[in-house]
Amino acid sequence: xxxxxxxxxxVEQAVNENSEAFGEIVKRWERKIFALCFGMxxxxxxxxxxxxxxxxAAYRNLKNFRGEAKVSSWLHRIAVNQxxxxxxxxxxxxxxxxxDETNAxxxxxxxxxxxxxxxxxxQNERLKVIRQAVGSLPPDLRQVIVMxxxxxxxxxxxxxxxxxxxxxxxxxxYTALKQLRMKLERTPLEVI
Amino acid sequence: xxxxxxxNSSCTFAEQTISYLYDEIDVSGKAAVEKHLxxxxxxxxxxxxxxxxxxxxxxxQRDEFYQLETPKIEIPNNESKKLPLGISVSNKTQSWIGxxxxxxxxxxxxxxxxxxxLVTVFVGLIVINHNSSGNNQIAxxxxxxxxxxxxxxxxxxxxxxxxxxxSNNSTNVNSPEKSSPSNVIKVQELxxxxxxxxxxxxxxxxxxxxxxxxxxxxxxxxxxxxxxxRRLDVSNYAAVNxxxxxxxxxxxxxxxxxxxxxxLHLADLxxxxxxx
Lengths: 192, 276
What we know:
Number of strands of chain A: 0
CATH architecture of chain A: Orthogonal Bundle
Largest sheet of chain A: none
Strand content of chain B: under 5%
Oligomer: heterodimer
Shape of chain A: globular
């Protein structure tokens, strides 16, 4: 029954004390929000926490939700803010001895068993570089590239969600790819 | 409008190139870009470079993100209690500990009310229990009083008991459960079967005077509701109890009370006989 409703109708029902409506919103968006958080933060544990916090914050502010905005925009905005807060917190915690992107190196990556040790090391290096590169993008560029690559959204959907002109979204994606290419080229790795 | 501030490329095809890269371009636009890429080295180089970047991001996703399960999003109970909506997003079934915790976390006022109700119920039970045991005590005490205040001459009493005892023994040997109410003739329970049994019961010869005295006593009980009469009644029951106890019969006091007006009181008759 609730699956036929739009996100906005679900929020309206959730505000009117329909307990299932908010659950349906969560079901629809949890994977995408988790993907966004993972792309923005680069760490699974932090992404999980950020996704959880995003929905809690959304739940808290249900009554403040303005009908004119889209639920997807609202959730993405909350998620991005949550990710930025998490990043700031991580940065403060690690103080100045390491950049937060460097912290991502601590993550232990278990490669598939079929890869040789040399290949595994190389794979790990590649992943580390791309993670660092994405993590070093400015938030507005990082957000659009993560939405495009991780959430697999179209330019139109991103524009709709972020309430930005379509050309602005394309421009940001273009710029993000350009900066990523430069960062990856600065760290030469053998293309497999 | 395309924002050129972010890029160094001077090529006006940049926006179309990015749409081409993600395959979000119509057929005519696609053909135009492909035609442009053949003549523009900068755009061709960018397309190749962006392809490598995308491939790297895809590797990262495939190796790390795709394997991850979507986290179970749960709104904590305390969070949902703070809010006007009492909902829980969690799809998990609550454990019994959780249920117990939730049950115990109800407001102190309702706990106090529940405790008060429990205490009331307990007190009520104790009072009821006490009353019923008090009735038993009255019955026992009545027995004692009856033995103390009995004015019946011993020999006549004994013979009466003996006659009742012997007749009861002769009639109710095979059905001892029927022997208990034999002292009281129940008018409303005289079914044909009971009538047959009643026919076998001993015939107590009662004089007209005794009947009249009994009727008078019943009438007095009906009209007067004084404590004296009540006490007399109790002693009468006690006398019956004493007799039946001696005869090995245990009459049901409750039955006697219920059928007070309908039964012929043997004690009155005995009093009458004793008076003679």
